[in-house]
Amino acid sequence: MIRFLLMVMIVLVAASPGVAQPTMQDPVQISDIGRTPPNGPCQYPCNRVAVIFIHGITGDSTTWSNGTVEWPKLLADDSDLQTELGTALDVYRVDYFSQLNEGPSVTTINKNLSAKLDEKLFGRPLGGRGYSKIVLVCHSLGGILCRNYLLHVKLRWGHAFLSLFRATITLGTPLEGSDLANLTLVRASSNEQVRVLRPIDFNDFLQLLHESTQEFTQKRQTLGCPEVQFYAGYEMRDTPLVEGIPFPTLRIVSQQSATAGVQHTKGFDKNHRELVKPANRSDAVYDWVRGILRTCGPNGGACSAAIDRTCGRPSWLSTP
After folding, report:
1. Is the peptide bond before 125 cis (omega within 30 degrees of 0)?
2. pTM, whole model, 2 decimals?
3. What pLDDT, on a 0 to 100 scale, did the predictor assign at position 19?
4. Contacts of 91 (CB under 8 A, 6+ apart)
5. Is 1 a domain residue?
6. Which domain holds residue 151?
7. Does residue 240 contact residue 248 with C-beta atoms inside 8 Å?
C-alpha cells in the first residue's frame, strides 16, 4: 500500500506544471528561481538584472546543487548583493534534455532555447520583461550554447540587443573542445551533443563559432558598441570519471580550452563538477561571479555601461 501511494505521488509531482522536465520533443525548459521573500512585480521595462544559468551535457537542475544548497537559489536570495546593486535579481535556470546516450543536437537545443529566452527577456513585440542588463552563467557545454545564443541575438535582433548582455561567464567550457569527447566510447553515444565537444582541430562547429564570436566582437569595436564582456573560470583538478568513485580521474577541460580567446580568466582548485556547486556565499567561484555582478551596480563597470541606441550604425549615416 505504501509503495502504491509513493508511485501515485511521483506521478502527480511529475505531472505538475511547476516541475516540467525537458523531453526530446520539448527539449528546453526555463524555470524562474523564486526569491525569499518573493520579488514584487517589475514594471515594463524591467530595471532588474536577469541572471540565466545553463548547465552542461548530461546535466540537469542538480548540476548546481551541493547537498541542499542550490546556486541559483543562493544567488536569488543574496539580499546583500541586491542591496548593493540597488535593484533585485531575477534568476532563471535553463534545463535541456541531455542524457548519457540520448539527446537532440545542439542546433535543435539552440533553436528552442533562443525562442524561449527571447520571449522571456525581450520586450515588445515578444511580451517579455524588457531587461537592459542580462548576465549568463554557463557550465561546460552550456557555455557553447550561451555563445551560440549570443550569435543568434546578433543575427536576429542586431547589435543594440546584443548590448543587453552585460557579461557571459563560462565555467569549465571546452571552447576548443575536450579530448574526452574524442574517446571511442564517448563518440559512440547517441547523444548528438557530443559532436560539438570534440577538439577544435576536428570540429567545424567550434571553429565557426569561435570565428563568428571574434568577428562580432571586432565589428562592435569598429562601430562603437560596448565590448561584449566574456569571463572564463577553469578547473585546476582532475575529475573522477564516475561521480562518487575516486578513480580513475581526468582533466575534463584543459585551461587552454576553457580560456581560449577570453581576456578575464580565473582558475579554481576544484574539479569539473565542483566548479558549479558552491556550498555557501564564501565559496571562491560564487565570490568571483558575485564580483562580476557587482559591476552592474551604481559604482559603475562594464555591466553598467550605457547602451547607445545607434550602436551598429555607420558613422556617416544620420541618427534616426
Report:
1. yes
2. 0.92
3. 53
4. 32, 33, 35, 50, 51, 53, 72, 73, 75, 76
5. no
6. 25-304
7. yes
Supply the CATH number for residue 133's domain: 3.40.50.1820
Rounded distance between C-alpha atoms, residue 187 and residue 180, angstroms: 9
| Cβ-contact 117, 149 below 8 angstroms | yes
Residue 115's nearest CA partner among 85, 75, 157 is 157
Q: What is the pLDDT of residue 319?
A: 58
Q: Cis check for the bond before 240: say yes or no (omega within 30 of 0).
A: no
Tell me if 278 sits within 8 A of 71, measured CB to CB: yes
Residue 166 domain-assigned (yes or no): yes
Distances (CA, A) of 136 to 94, 100, 164, 242, 262: 11, 25, 11, 28, 15
Sheet holding 49-54, edge to edge: 28-33, 89-96, 49-54, 133-139, 165-171, 230-235, 264-268
Geometric angle at alpha carbon 169, from 185 and 208, rounded to 5°: 60
pLDDT of amino acid 316 = 77
What confidence score (pLDDT) does residue 185 get?
Answer: 62
Is 100 among the domain residues?
Answer: yes
| Rounded Cα distance, 311 and 221, in Å | 10
Task: Please answer whether residues 294 and 85 qualify as being in contact, where contact means their C-beta atoms are separated by less than 8 angstroms.
Answer: yes
CA 282 to chain CA centroid, nearest Å: 21
Q: Is 270 exposed, middle or buried (0-12, 13-18, 19+ CB in 10 A)?
A: buried
Q: How many helices (H) and strands (E) does the chain have?
A: 10, 11
Cβ atoms of 205 and 174 closer than 8 Å: no
Q: Identify which of 242, 229, 231, 243 has the alpha carbon closest to the alpha carbon of residue 277.
A: 243
One-letter identity of residue 291? G
* Structural domain contains residue 216: yes
What's the total number of domains in the chain? 1
Please, are residues 114 and 156 in contact by the beta-carbon 8 Å criterion? yes
Neighbours of 38 (CB within 10 A): 8
Whole-angstrom distance, CA of residue 131 vs CA of residue 44: 9
Which residues does the chain have with pLDDT short of 50? 1-18
Q: How far apart are CA 231 and CA 102, in angstroms?
A: 30
